[in-house]
From TrEMBL:
InterPro entries: Acyl_transf_3_dom, Acyltransferase_3, SGNH. This is Acyltransferase. GO terms for biological process: lipopolysaccharide biosynthetic process. Keywords: Membrane, Transmembrane, Transmembrane helix. One of its GO terms (molecular function) is acyltransferase activity, transferring groups other than amino-acyl groups. GO terms for cellular component: membrane. Residues 250-488 form the SGNH domain. The lineage of its organism: Bacteria, Pseudomonadati, Pseudomonadota, Gammaproteobacteria, Pseudomonadales. Pfam families: Acyl_transf_3, SGNH. Residues 1-187 form the Acyltransferase domain. It comes from Metapseudomonas resinovorans NBRC 106553. The chain crosses the membrane at residues 29-46, 52-74, 81-99, 105-123, 135-155, 161-184, 204-223.
Length: 493
């Protein structure tokens, strides 16, 4: 287990640190190391929670706080301070499970838990000793390791079983079941193991056999999951023709022939339709796509949280200039298919970086701005006599529906959610109303085709996440490779 690995690493390094540190400096050195580790944890967790969660340098501070508590347990000043914090510490431990700090974990929440716990342990008073429910705490302490081993598989199983949130009654049952199984493991495994008179050789052979068996099962599972029939493969990132086509279009792998007559131009919403256009429609195409870069002239999404936000936006603007120039110069190109997450450019929730002469300005999205920007691209293409199609974004889904879709296709039992993993078209219809109105108005002016993906995904107001036992979606907003092919097969353009 990853946590045991962290603990073992700590147990190897910690004694070495103490051995080379003067005893009088132990507290100060451990406090400094704990602070450095905590700061690193908070900083890294904001960028990559997995790295912060699983590595020793970003988790050592929790163990170091415990070590500091042990060193301060006999210090009168520390005991007085800890006793003054007893009530706040108990309050924090009682309230924190029900309150979100708003920070990534591990971080502020874990720091509060560790500090509160060490305050209680260092500052426990005679009153605390009398009031503490000793029997219950001793019982939990005795079975704590078994509890630690059994709790996570049960929680994962319950969360996997339910499509939606696990009901409160089931969560209570899960806690009771976990404690029961932990107690049984404690009595039937831990206690007999500690008092066992079995020879070391027999014990080693038994444990090795179990280890080999578990490793074999895990290997079989991994090999199965990595096969092309595995669901992870079905829901792999849909780059279109090739993974390198997310920011370039001149490469041979981003074309279906040497002289294609169609260009698919847009962001990741253009990438995910390429498979359908290629396989089901048989189009000879060039994929001109760049992630988070809708096909506009002189303007680009501005996302300051991205690394080098300004530069990324300017690269998008230049990319679109290059694509337009390619379309205008290549006489073989007769058709252009535009696709992007257009809904986001009509609601004022995004900002755009736009060229103003030699300067760039940041401005909010709006219906009016989208109309002007899209008018420019349509006009430029029509001036070069290109046939234009605009692909409307698909209805979005939530993670619960994706979970349902996966379980339904895999034939696994699940509880809750729609039996057929369907959803209502209402949200998509309402959220895309402005986009639909703008495109319909521009269609009268430029005579282009609007392709509605929902025509293949939905029937009336009911939309599907599964078509012919294939997953339509790879994530809440993007189509899978199989889904893309199935949709365009049904559209039959």
């Amino acid at each position: 287990m990853w946590s045991l690995a962290i603990e073992e690493q700590f147990y190897i390094l910690f004694p070495a640190i103490l051995a080379f540190t003067p005893i009088k400096a132990w507290r100060h050195v451990l406090a400094i190391l704990a602070t450095i580790s905590l700061v690193a944890c908070v900083y890294i967790a904001a960028k990559d929670t997995s790295t912060a969660f699983y590595l020793l340098p970003t988790r050592a501070w929790e163990l170091l706080i415990g070590a500091l508590g042990a060193l301060l347990a006999t210090n009168p000043t520390a005991i007085r301070c800890a006793r003054a914090l007893l009530l706040p510490a108990f309050a924090a431990l009682a309230i924190l499970p029900f309150v979100r700090t708003g920070h990534a974990h591990p971080g502020a929440d874990a720091a509060i838990v560790c500090l509160a716990t060490v305050s209680i342990l260092v500052g426990r008073s005679a009153l605390f000793e009398r009031l503490a429910p000793k029997t219950g705490l001793v019982f939990l302490g005795n079975i704590s390791y078994s509890l630690y081993l059994v709790h996570w598989p049960i929680i994962v199983f319950m969360n996997n079983l339910y499509i939606e949130a696990v009901p409160a009654s089931v969560r209570v049952f899960t806690v009771a079941l976990t404690i029961t199984l932990a107690y049984l493991m404690y009595r039937t495994v831990e206690e007999p193991f500690r008092g066992s008179k079995t020879s070391t050789r027999k014990l080693a052979v038994s444990l090795a056999s179990v280890g080999i068996l578990i490793a074999g099962v895990q290997t079989a599972v991994v090999l199965h999951d990595n096969s092309e029939s595995g669901f992870a493969y079905m829901r792999r990132i849909n780059y279109g023709l090739h993974g390198s086509c997310y920011a370039q279009f001149a490469k041979p792998v981003c074309k279906t022939s040497n002289n294609p007559n169609t260009v698919v131009w847009g962001d990741s919403f253009a990438m995910h339709i390429v498979e359908g256009l290629r396989k089901s429609e048989g189009l000879d195409l060039t994929q001109a796509t760049r992630s988070a870069c809708a096909p506009f002239i002189g303007t680009s999404p501005y996302i300051p949280t991205y690394a080098n936000g300004d530069e990324t936006s300017r690269q998008c603007i230049q990319f679109n200039k290059d694509v337009l120039s390619y379309i205008e110069k290549d006489k073989n190109i007769t058709k252009v298919i535009l696709a992007a997450n257009y809904v986001g450019y009509t609601n004022g929730k995004l900002n755009m970086l736009s060229e103003r002469g030699e300067e760039f300005v940041v401005e909010p999205t709006s219906r009016e701005k989208f109309t002007r920007d899209f008018d420019l691209i349509l006009k430029a293409l029509k001036e070069h006599h290109k046939e234009i199609s605009v692909v409307f974004p698909p209805p979005p889904v939530d993670n619960g529906l994706l979970n349902c879709m996966e379980k339904k296709i895999s034939g696994r039992f699940f509880i809750g959610g729609q039996e057929n993993c369907t959803f209502s078209m209402t949200y998509h219809a309402n959220s895309s109303k402005v986009l639909n109105a703008v495109l319909t108005d521009l269609q009268k002016k430029y005579d282009f085709k609007i392709v509605y993906l929902q025509d293949a995904i939905c029937s009336g107001n009911i939309c599907n996440t599964i078509i012919d036992n294939a997953p339509v979606y790879r994530d809440p907003v993007h189509l899978s490779y199989l889904g893309s092919a199935k949709i365009f097969e049904k559209l039959n353009l």
